[in-house]
Amino acid sequence: MTSTVRSLSLSLAYFLVLLDTTVLTIALPDVRATLGGSLAGQQWAVNAYTVAFAASLLVGGAVADRYGAARTFRLGVGAFGLISLACALSPTLEALVALRALLGVAGALCLGGSLGLIAQLYPDAAERARAMGVWAAATGSALAVGPLLGGLLVDLAGWRAIFLINPPLAALGLLAAKSVVSPRGTRRIDWAVQSLACAFLALLAQAVTGRSPIAGAAAVTMVVLLVVVERRSHAPALPGGLLRAAWPELLAGTVANFAFSGALFVLTLLLQEGRHLTPSAAGLAFLPLTLPMSVNPLLTGRVVARYGARPPILAGLVLLAAGLAGVACGDLLVASLIVTGLGLSFCLPALVAGVVAAAPPGTAGTAGGVLNAARQVGATLGVAVLGGIGDALLVAAGLVALTAVVYAAGSARRRVPAG
């Protein structure tokens, strides 16, 4: 099996994970028409998945490092297919929200396993960077396909159809990984630390999404407990030195996902409820934004392999800020969406390569979990915050621009590894 084919095979299941992030967004008006509910209920139909996904990513990475990436990957993919069937049968909005949360946990296992497998199969830094490019291109395709496929399925058969495409793809993912074997790791799991981390991430999302001061206070309490228990733990959730080495990448990933997910939510409602486009027409409108994310990561992987992660991350943040500002102003909308997509497709693959390369040996799954937990927290907060304020896209553009400045200053103090 060639390197490219192997990378695509490992990326198939995570394609599913990201597809479910965007495919439901375009179906929200139909969900509301069928199951009822408020704007907050629609936000939770999206956020139940991203909250659970974010809260479980550290656990998913730790389980992959401890019990083997291949075993974890197969468990996550199988569960994803089965839970998707249950989502399609949801009788109420509350049931859909609960099942979407379980789907997020399965997605975290998929991601932890796939990143662990890539680190295992590609120990050379340059080869791993190129493999990450293929992985990011395949998963970026999910962002491109999601709105369009979701719109077509909703127009043809209603929102339930979007979950019925997952089981066949999950079965293909299981077949692709059936012959891959990963050794068990020696790094132990402190379940108290992992549980506190999950609780903190979930409460933080609830505090912002539900505007709940009680949840906010509980999140503060939980993070204090987490720091205390983490310092005393025999198996801390964060690899030693990872935060100190990779905080600029973690910040950039959080803000990039905040801006993208929030903008996607705002634009979906604008196109369908403001401009009265059909779901399929709205999906087509997103293609200039999402198509670059299925092609450009291949180039990004080569750039990272040759020059390191810093140049494409910085360029991606600048392009993302410029694109969002252009969309907010309404001028040259298609061109601005393309620039936004190019920015994301430069930034996100390079972030993964940089953080995994900074991880201590045997902790690639955990390091990937840390980055993606930060990104998914950003995605959840983006929907919650930008979905409820005016001039949301300009706010997102300004925040990304500020992050580019902070990243440039922070990363200048050390050279970001190539992969």
From TrEMBL:
Keywords recorded for this protein, A-Z: Membrane, Transmembrane, Transmembrane helix, Transport
Which superkingdom is the protein from? Bacteria
Q: Which InterPro entries match?
A: MFS, MFS_dom, MFS_trans_sf
Q: According to Swiss-Prot or TrEMBL, what is its membrane topology?
A: Multi-pass membrane protein
User: Subcellular location, in the record's words?
Assistant: Cell membrane
* Residue ranges crossing the lipid bilayer per the database entry: 43-63, 75-93, 99-122, 134-153, 214-229, 250-271, 277-299, 311-328, 380-409
The record's PROSITE patterns line, in alphabetical order, gives: MFS (PS50850)
SUPFAM superfamilies per UniProt: MFS general substrate transporter
Task: Tell me which Pfam families the record gives.
Answer: MFS_1
Residue span(s) of domain Major facilitator superfamily (MFS) profile: 6-415
Q: Which PANTHER family match?
A: MAJOR FACILITATOR SUPERFAMILY MULTIDRUG TRANSPORTER MFSC
Protein's name in the database: MFS transporter
